[in-house]
Amino acid sequence: MKVPDVATGLPQPDPTRLEQLKELSGRLEFKFRDYRLYDLALTHSSFSNEPGAHRMNNQRLEYFGDSIIGFVVNEHLFLDYKLSEGQMARIKAFAVSEKSLASAARAIHLGSYLRMSKGERKSGGSRRPSNLADAFEAFVAAIYVDRGLKQSRQFIIGMLDSRLRNLSQGSRAHDPKSALQELVQKKFRSHPTYELVSQEGPDHKREFVYRVVVADREISRGVGSSRKRAERHAAMRALDLLK
Q: What does the domain layout of the chain look like in residue ranges?
């Protein structure tokens, strides 16, 4: 099946930009076929405000790349690690969080290749975690369209494998509240809050019910013999629902 040309209408990168992309290709040790895709992946939405700039940006690629990274990470965790469903969900949430992907983008200096408006760059846009994470996701999508799933998988696992190993061995992977916070930040650009629903029973046998709320919507409830346990239970159930 022929892959649609998602870069239709984009000009070839100018000689200076082409040299930059060739340098990036050489450092990553795999060949770019359609340089327009990588140019687009590294074009921030603010760039359209520059004189003579085209109006396409990396947002569509970023959306697609998010799904590719999620699939590859889940596949890797399923095939290479002996983890429960809940552990897989929590580790994946950390691994694909904005903080994690921004760190991966910094490791290959993607920020220095980002095209953006002068104002955005002056305000620190090339170092902003959200821009770096978005660029990393868009870059993965460009690899997928240009070179296919095999090369995409090699790139993603090469960039994230050490982080996945550390998470699978570390206690953070078993902290559902932290995992939920990372997931909600990424999916909803918001933060989960925990609210007491009820508190019953004598002091020596108290039962707490807490609910998790995201963007004014209840996601789940948890029960426990302490506030902390009830919140953790609610977070675990929310992860299962939102993953």
A: 15-174, 176-242
pLDDT in tens, the chain (243 residues): 444 566 667 778 889 999 999 999 999 999 999 999 999 999 998 887 666 656 788 999 999 999 999 999 999 999 988 888 878 888 888 888 888 999 999 999 999 999 988 888 889 988 999 999 999 999 999 999 999 999 999 999 999 988 888 877 754 445 788 888 888 888 888 899 999 999 988 776 789 999 999 989 999 999 988 898 899 889 988 987 886
The identity of residue 205, as a single letter, is K
CATH architecture of 15-174: Orthogonal Bundle (1.10)
Residue of 11, 13, 9, 32 lying closest to 139 (CA atoms): 32
Whether domain 176-242 has CATH 3.30.160.20: the reply is yes
| CB-based contact 49:117 (threshold 8 Å) | yes
Active site includes 29?
no
Among 137, 146, 182, 231, which one carries the catalytic annotation? Answer: 137
Active-site residue among 66, 120, 134, 231? 66
Catalytic annotation on 66?
yes
pTM of the complete model: 0.70
